[in-house]
Amino acid sequence: MPSPTPIWDAHSCLPLRPDMPLAVLERHRAAGAVFVSVNVGMDMTPITDILKVLAAWRRQIEQASDRFVLAHTLADVETAASSGRLAVAFDLEGGLPLADQPEMIGLYHRLGVRQMHLAYNRSNTICGGCHDEDMGLTELGQRVVAEINRVGILMDCSHTGELSSLQIMAVSARPVIFSHANPRALVDHPRNVSDAQIDACAATGGVIGINGVGLFLGLPESAVARPADMAEHIAYVVDRVGPRHVGIGLDYAYDTETAEDMAGMEVDTAYWWPPGNGYDFGVLTFAPPEVLAGLAEELARRGYGDDDIAGVLGGNFRRVAAEVWR
Ligand SMILES: [Zn+2]
After folding, report:
1. Ligand 1 mean position, distance from CA 5 (Å)
2. Structural domains of the chain, with CATH
3. What's the average model confidence in pLDDT over 25-45?
4. CA neighbor of 140 nearest in space, from 105, 190, 89, 175
5. For a designed S-S bond to 12, which of 77, 146, 175, 252 qualifies (C-beta 3.0 to 4.6 A apart)?
6. What is the model's pTM?
């Protein structure tokens, strides 16, 4: 029997608390992941909280070096894979933690951030959010894109407004990803991406990561996504732009029942997750890491070849990381 395909999960979440035990990520490793990117802050997270989480989580990963590897480079991911460990890197969901200063990107990079959005649902000084009036990429936004390109961080347009994302993809010198976003043609939700966004992403050489959030997969309330549900969305993007531009960004939220759990603090839920878009943290479902273990078989059942399956489950994001990370 061939060895299982190494899985690259482009985005999952932990409650943003320094004392959140990262040992829970063992479930990702057990399900076949060699890499996971976890967010360390969103646009509503104060910078001090982001730094506290980064400091504490970096230390936790170092202390559990028998199971985890802090991924600064692709070589770190290879090291993790060859020793049966899980490589972990960090992402920022939004550009507000830059405090309008693009030089902050290099600082976050040094702290382990390898992927970032420019906005989180709402518009900010950099660009428009997917749940807001989208005024496009600002002058500051242009400088932020250039700096993300220069520093070598994965530019991620999930949660970004459609117009802004198209402008970002037009000016980015490097491939752009949607780490966790599903096709809007299948489920008409503002967090999902249009055909134009999918086409533009592929044209940059980027990858769209399909997530396991029931709301974005169009599942009935309280249904938890199975491999077949995610495969449906994978198939749509594969049919549109080919198997090299699809990946997995599970968006599993560990230990999260409320928006406060997720944000790690009191937060204006109605502002960041506008009501009317189906956000109810008591009802939202997230496919667990264990779903990853069944994806290869599901894709094989649908007739995908081994190379395409390996690309979708990990190889495609790995290719883009190789191009972008330094
Ligand atoms: Zn997200």
Report:
1. 25
2. 7-324 (3.20.20.140)
3. 97
4. 105
5. 252
6. 0.97
Q: Which two tokens stand for residue 270?
A: 């109605």
Residue 219 Cα to ligand 1 midpoint, Å, equals: 18
**Cα of 303 from ligand 1 centre, angstroms:** 30
Expressed in angstroms and rounded, the spacing between residue 55 Cα and the centre of ligand 1 is 21
Helix, strand, or coil here: 42? strand
Its sign, for the CA torsion 159, 198, 311, 320, is negative
Q: In what helix (H) or strand (E) does residue 163 lie, and over which residues does it extend?
A: helix 162-171
pLDDT digits (tens, 9 = 90+) for 274-309: 989 999 888 899 999 999 999 999 999 999 999 999
Report the separation in Å between the CA atom of 13 and the middle of ligand 1, taken as the mean of its atom positions.
Answer: 8
Q: Given a cut of 50, is residue 1 above it in pLDDT?
A: no
Q: Which residues contact 75 (CB under 8 A, 6 or more apart)?
A: none
CA of 2 to the centre of ligand 1 (A): 33
Q: How far is the CA of 215 from the centre of ligand 1 (A)?
A: 13
Quickly list H helices, 12-46. Answer: 26-30
3 pLDDT more than 70: no
Ligand 1 geometric centre to CA of 191 (Å):
9
Question: Is 90 exceeded by the pLDDT of residue 259?
Answer: no
- Nearest to 227, CA basis, from 39, 50, 5, 79: 5
Round to whole Å and give the CA distance between 15 and 18. Answer: 9
Ligand 1 centroid to Cα of residue 78, in Å, is 26
Question: What is residue 116's three-state secondary structure?
Answer: strand
Residue 272 has pLDDT above 60, yes or no: yes
Residue 225 near residue 217, CB atoms below 8 Å: yes
188-219 as b/e: b if 16+ CB within 10 A: ebbbbbeeebbebbbebbbbbbbbbbbbbbbb
Residue whose token pair is 């990079």: 109
